[in-house]
Write a structure and sequence with these properties.
Layout: E1 2-5, H1 12-19, H2 23-29, E2 43-46, E3 56-63, H3 69-75, E4 81-89, E5 95-96, H4 104-112, E6 116-121, H5 132-139, H6 142-159, E7 163-166, H7 176-192, E8 196-201, H8 219-225, E9 228-231, H9 249-259, E10 268-273, E11 276-280, E12 291-293, H10 295-304, E13 310-312, E14 317-323, E15 330-334, H11 338-351, E16 355-359, H12 366-375, E17 377-378
Parallel strand pairs: 3-4, 3-16, 3-17, 4-6, 6-7, 7-8, 8-9, 9-10, 10-16
Antiparallel strand pairs: 1-2, 4-5, 11-12, 11-15, 13-14, 14-15
Helix pairs in contact: 5-7, 7-8, 9-11, 11-12
């Protein structure tokens, strides 16, 4: 596989002819839309039917129960684990099923494709926000912990889940050790019943890192307690941040290098974003809100507005600015393409990580999966 960056004057016909591939293949692999216009700076995946996998990786992906059936069916062949998002719980340990729809059909589809369905546990309040008081209650009361684990086991046996993913954020610093003990108890109980446990980790770069996202997460302790971990390396550009890359490779590398001082590589999965953001400009802190977009959608925005896509060599991320044709407002877009993904896959290979986990798989990005399959054998 190769990557080609579109230049002025290029067309799908000229590019396909230059690489000796069918125009239909170029269009299909890159999800181009009729009349197949291209954006200058757009990265295209060129597949000459060559495969060069290096090592085997486990691949996870988060999805809500309202995911499109076709999208899930297309994605499952590339997944080792499907993280169903998400079960909540009360302060006393009662389990709350996903508020977004039934999960049984997702479990059935995952099993049909040889993918492990994983129950994702999150401390959501009634507004859908992470609630650290729920965490505080559960991890500091043994009876509540025991009751929650009992409920988890019952659901897993009833539904056919094969593992638990603990995705707790904004843990209070004072609850750090209690949270680690909670994860250890969950993992030990799950192992005894033939299940495995993972935990999502905010992207720390040092043990002393301050902030509500970081202080409650003990990398070493959680790495020892859980069977494996996911580094949430997609926390830089976000809805209310200034315009920037979601997962700049220079920052992602710093997180991985710190994590490796605390956790064995074979336990670490790299978080990969399957989305981008569109920010209206000028940016005003606390006011400006970016719109979440898909990676394919980002390119279509560039095409529709005649924007030239740039590539930040330090962040290894594509971006562009455009003027909205309707309102005349200026926008800035950062997203993922095959170049940024190639850099992340290279990082996985360099450090021999366990694999990767996608937040989230609700939108289909075919070139990503073709490239991943080209670089690695996917564990099933």
């Amino acid at each position: 596989m190769e990557i080609y960056v579109v230049a002025y004057g290029d067309s799908v016909d000229s590019i396909a002819a230059a690489f000796g591939i069918a125009v239909e293949t170029l269009i299909y692999d890159n999800q181009l839309v009729y009349p197949y216009e291209l954006a200058v700076g757009q990265a295209l995946l060129i597949d000459r039917n060559g495969r060069n996998p290096s090592g085997t990786v486990s691949v996870g992906g988060y999805a809500y129960p309202f995911i499109n059936f076709w999208v899930l069916e297309q994605t499952l062949p590339f997944l080792s684990e499907l993280y169903v998002f998400s079960y909540g719980f009360t302060a006393q340990g009662s389990l709350i099923p996903p508020p977004y729809g039934e999960d049984d059909w997702m479990i059935a589809q995952a099993l049909r494709f040889g993918t492990q369905p994983i129950l994702t546990l999150t401390p959501f309040d009634e507004y859908g926000n992470f609630n650290n008081q729920l965490i505080h209650s559960i991890v500091n009361h043994q009876a509540y912990t025991d009751y929650l684990i009992e409920n988890l086991l019952q659901i897993m046996y009833e539904k056919g889940y094969q593992g638990v993913d603990i995705d707790f954020e904004y843990i209070l610093a004072q609850d750090r050790d209690a949270f680690t003990a909670f994860v250890r108890q969950v993992a030990e109980t799950m192992r005894a019943n033939g299940f495995h446990t993972s935990v999502a980790l905010a992207p720390k770069t040092s043990s002393e890192q301050e902030g509500l996202l970081y202080e409650g997460k003990d990398y070493r302790g959680l790495g020892e307690a859980a069977d494996h971990v996911l580094l949430m390396t997609y926390e830089w550009g976000y809805t209310y941040s200034p315009p920037m890359a979601v997962a700049p490779i220079n920052q992602v590398r710093r997180v991985v290098e710190y994590a490796l001082t605390q956790i064995p590589a074979e336990k670490i999965a790299l978080g990969i974003p399957n989305y981008g953001y569109d920010w209206p400009l000028p940016y005003e802190r606390g006011v400006t809100k970016a719109r979440t977009i898909g990676n394919v959608e980002a390119v279509r925005i560039a095409v529709a507005n005649g924007a030239v896509i740039q590539f930040d060599e330090i962040a290894q991320s594509p971006n562009f600015r455009y003027t909205n044709a309707e309102g005349g407002s200026l926008h800035e877009v950062w997203f993922e393409d095959v170049r940024s993904l190639w850099a992340k896959f290279d990082l996985m290979r360099e450090y021999r990580l366990r694999g990767c986990g996608y937040w989230q798989i609700m939108q289909w990005f075919r070139a990503n999966w073709l490239l991943l399959e080209n670089r690695f054998y996917i564990l099933k």
